[in-house]
Design a protein that fits this description.
about 250 residues, mainly alpha, single chain, 10 helices, globular
Length: about 250
């Protein structure tokens, strides 16, 4: 019995999961996935007229949303630092400007999100009109950040594709160029990894953009569709973070 318990408790998957859950980003992505799943189930149950069960999932969704805001209380400064670093590091002008703009937009979004959290836990009391305005501004800044990120991904992916094509076209190695060929292959591998990561981020942004757009009341999207979008991008984020932390596919 003890052997079976050891095999379960000490299983590598359990250890990897604990390692993943030990990171703030890992927990946030997990909470986000559960939050949007609960949002979908609440919407689905309400559409069937089951208000009692829907209330349970709505409560879970709301509490997870509040918990995630608490986890992000220090994030505005991180994005401000990222904007400053992007301004100091040389790079393609267009990509650099978009990176700075994205980070500043996220700084504003998460700063307003702190007010939303403070209002949710009743630490501050805003009148309904003011609270709605704060929430809408938060979503607009989130939307701006995603749009900047989307354009940045397009520019970066295009640049990386050109670099890879140019590198392949100029590879003319002889028998004495083994070291140079190895460096070229390594460079191509780095570019390809960056292209895949950029493409993945673009896909996430294209899906996620509907969430703040709906929150800012700029578009009218079905609640069920928004929930599925949030769940899909959360799972994509979990996959990316899992590979970064655990180092396994």
């Amino acid at each position: 019995m003890a052997t079976i318990a050891s095999q379960v408790v000490l299983h590598p998957l359990v250890s990897d999961t604990l390692k993943f859950g030990g990171t703030t980003l890992g927990r946030d992505k997990t909470y986000r996935a559960i939050q949007y799943l609960a949002r979908f189930l609440a919407w689905h149950l309400l559409s069937k007229g089951d208000k009692l069960d829907a209330a349970r999932w709505t409560a879970l969704k709301s509490h997870l949303a509040t918990a995630r805001k608490l986890l992000r209380l220090g994030k505005p400064i991180e994005h401000l630092q990222a904007a400053l670093r992007a301004a100091l590091v040389p790079g393609p002008a267009g990509e650099q400007i978009l990176t700075i703009a994205k980070q500043i937009a996220y700084f504003g979004y998460l700063s307003y999100d702190m007010l939303v959290w403070a209002q949710a836990i009743k630490f501050i009391n805003l009148n309904p009109e003011k609270a709605k305005k704060v929430g809408k501004t938060s979503n607009r800044l989130w939307l701006a950040g995603i749009l900047f990120s989307t354009v940045h991904s397009v520019l970066k992916y295009t640049r990386l594709t050109k670099e890879a094509k140019k590198l392949r076209a100029t590879r003319k190695f002889g028998e004495k160029d083994i070291g140079e060929e190895a460096q070229s292959e390594m460079r191509l591998g780095t570019i390809e990894s960056a292209r895949i990561a950029t493409q993945r981020q673009f896909m996430i942004d294209v899906l996620d953009v509907w969430l703040p757009a709906a929150g800012a009341e700029l578009v009218n999207v079905n609640e069920g569709v928004l929930s599925i979008i949030g769940l899909v991008t959360s799972l994509m984020g979990i996959s990316t973070q899992w590979k970064a932390v655990v180092g396994k596919n």
